[in-house]
Amino acid sequence: MSEQYFVTLEDIISNYSLEVVYIPEEAEKIKIKTNEVNRPGIVLTGYTDYFDPLRIQILGWTELGFLETMSPSKRSEALGYWLGLHPAAAVVTRGLDIPDYFITACEAYNVPLLRTDDETSPFMSALINYLNRELAPRITRHGVLVEVYGEGVLIVGESGAGKSETAVELIKRGHRLIADDAVEIRKVSDTVLEGSSPSNIRHFIELRGIGVINARRIFGMGAVKTIERINMVIQLEEWDSTKAYDRLGLDNEYAKILDVRVPIVTVPVTPGRNLAIIIETAAMNNRQKKMGYNGAKELMSALGMDDIEPTDKEIDIWQS
User: pTM of this prediction?
Assistant: First the structure.
């Protein structure tokens, strides 16, 4: 069974500077467990099938205006249909005045009532994006995550392969560190992975022979970043003279992480190879491929070998 993640209502209140109009208990004790939100229009008419009480409810001009058209008895009945299902919380947008009857109803049913000055649609969009990230499925794996020319590059390999040393060289060349040693990977959509560092080791790098350094303190704020999308994987491995390494880059290799396919490049490590430059080149090449250009295909076309079809291969980078 997959782990159930949650955010507290206190986190949401703090992140969006929400005004607390009424709350039945401490906000940090109220857990939000779904990334979906709801506007309770049809529920106010009495149709409650498929209503999910775990969702945060968003109300704007439309919902409050609809309630104002009702007689007091009908309005009380409508609020009972909705609030009687005990939704996680209600948020009134646009800084609208909240009628006393609405506050009284929320108090009667113990439903947290909040308010924001933001407009309805932008607030909903921002909240959904926030919940998608905070509640996303996640794993933590050994590796290094850096931003190179705007590409999020996850560097993996056996301990001692040179991942951290390569990250320092990349930082010196103007790129940014997101995580060293442990990378927390979140699946924020069906096609997007984001990586970050556990907060207790953020910005720290371990260099054998030197020890632990703080990249932010040594190289400055411009050398680090909190979170980055994972666009490709670089797998470092010790050079094996019996292995035939890809020399054209025509075939496509992928690593599957949380069921999302990410392009992967295997780089053999030998003394004297400048891994930082190789990773820079791989990042730029990956960006070109996303823009529709493939140097290997152009070379094959120039050699009259257009009939060669690239193949896809999936690689298990963590052997699990």
Answer: 0.82
